[in-house]
Amino acid sequence: MKPFLITVAAATVLVAAGDTHADSQFKLLVLAMPGKYHYEYIPIARDSLERLAKLHSFEVTYTNKPGVFDGDLAQYGAVMFLNTPGEELNPAQRAKFEAYMRGGGNAVVVHRAAITPPNGWVWYEKLVGRSVGPHPMLQTGVVTVVDKGFPAAFGLPDRWIWSDEFYVTTNPYDVKINTVLGVDESSYDPTRIWPGQSVQPMGKDHPIAWYHHVEKGRVFVTTLGHNGEMYRDPQYLGHLVGGIYWAAIGKGQVGGAVRQ
């Protein structure tokens, strides 16, 4: 091979190596365990999150085994509970996660992960920021953007047609949250719930995605994300990655007081 061609080939290898080993901005730990009503989303969500990680230069550790919480959590910029509530962790793993948050760790809570038995792990209930009440039927409604300056709302229209289980929540521990998305109860029937339950609509103040700070860390919660096809939807994925981005690095928020 001529010297010039050798030089070009070597340069090509170096560029390719640089692309392959590009520095990641942070690591995201995703706990996604199959449940009775949530399992089909797992391979779809994994594929989508791994593609988002490549696009936005972060790493994903995706697992269905809570034993990962026995290891070093400090390496992760954020921990995501994806349709998997904290009750899946044993007492030692719960203590490790609490220590992680006290040390400046961050959390993302998605859909079913917001539901946990009352008084089962009060610290986790406070981390979520709201307690989920009666379980609603999946319906099509109008999601409203409350905080346009938060990354999980970027790219969403002011009024967004979406189909999901719009959880009704309460605030038993008086936790202050910052609402990102709400839902217009006039756009669906909030009394349609699973048999054997009763519900009172929440009215105009019905948050379905929010953020706040717990210990020394950031927490983003979205109650959207019920079924697998949602994890293929570009707008939903934009909503999700916006929350991950803010939780992991604390940047991107427009206006308001930002604590990093």
TrEMBL record:
The residues covered by the ThuA-like domain are 29-247
Pfam families named among the record's database cross-references: ThuA
The organism's place on the tree of life at top rank: Bacteria
Can you say what this protein is called? ThuA domain-containing protein
Q: Which organism is it from?
A: Pseudoduganella dura
